[in-house]
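Quick check before the chapter quiz. The format below is the same one you will see on the exam, so make sure you can read both the input and the output lines.
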Amino acid sequence: MQRITCKFGGSSLADAACIRAAMDIVKKNPARRFIVPSAPGKRSANDKKITDLLYAWHNMARQGLDAAEPRKIIEERFNGLAHDLGVSFDVRSRLAEINERAAQDETPDYMASRGEYLNGRLIAEALDAVFIDPASCIRFKASGALDPETYTLLGAALAGDGLYVVPGFYGAMPDGSVRTFSRGGSDITGAIVARASKSDLYENWTDVSGFRMTDPRLVPEAKRIEEVTYRELRELSYMGATVLHDEAIFPVREPGIPIHILNTKAPESPGTRIVAQRQAATPVCGIAGRAGFTMFNIEKTLMNKEHGFGRKVLSVFEEHGVSWEHMPTGIDTISIIVRDDELRGKGDAIVEAIRRQLDADEISVTNGLAIIATVGQGMNHHIGVAARLTGAMAEADINLRVIDQGSSEMNIIIGVEENDLASAVRAIYEAFDDWE
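Here is the expected output.
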């Protein structure tokens, strides 16, 4: 019999009606046996996220302040859910346990994970399912990387019959302390559960009916993507497509488990399937962009003759603890593009270190840059993709600051001024949405 892992996002579990809809989805297909819930999301624009309240609770407790307000809101929220769902969930005793730990840990990971933990307990009771605490099965190495032993431990825990609920977002370090993934990490947990349970399909239920060709906030009429490969989605997610966490691809890619993005509010919608291989009907499957980049431009005559010059440049960024994103080069020039949240005010120190260590002729810094990725495995079979893209930029009167095409010919990266991000994305979409 087919096995399906279902991950439900916070917006899909925001209130009792949403949870009932998710439970109905599970019950409609007996193959849906492994359930990964997020913490309850916002019920309205002015509502508070449970995870944000837990972070606040941790910070207040660490400072010796009374965290009665966030605790009260959390208690009322889960009490309301338990009452509406008709389950006898002892919220108060669970929160008392959490309160004892609130000020003990320097990091907020344990506290931040309790939204998923409590919601998992609640949903397991409502579904009469087996609850599995990720801290007992999902293991991180001391480095923070996922320990492959996870798949053996979790697979054994999920080997029985019936339904299982495994909360998202967290696991445990070698010493047993709770460690969370980055925000949105329940997507990763879902992929881990799908692999450990040997599922045939990983359904990721959210509040949108799959991926669009680009951000619908920028292009409201953007078409839905029917199918996208792991590699294509990795590129799009990393560059700002936020339907799925970009690291959720890794656990399922090796065993080739498809991911299906579906909408809990429109469960009959076909959504988007994420697969290992697909037939590329069009050259471009998606466009994603984000602002917040800085580019360091380094010029030195005969740079290409100087052995190790690129390594020395990158070592400066390494010494300052800054990861780089892209590295366009010329004969006598090299540019390093970094995210502003990586840079954290270290720009002047990096420039000085490059000047001192590499004796560069000229160094300049370009701030306020947006990076856009145009992605599609069909690009390498179509002549003129780059020409069409640059032509679209010229017609929209947008100045290209960077253009870089990977050797895989799966993406073209361009850099524009942040103010031109929305216009550039729309221009690229209009250039490719009907080109076959």
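If your answer matched, good. The domain at 4-207 is CATH 3.40.1160.10 (Carbamate kinase).
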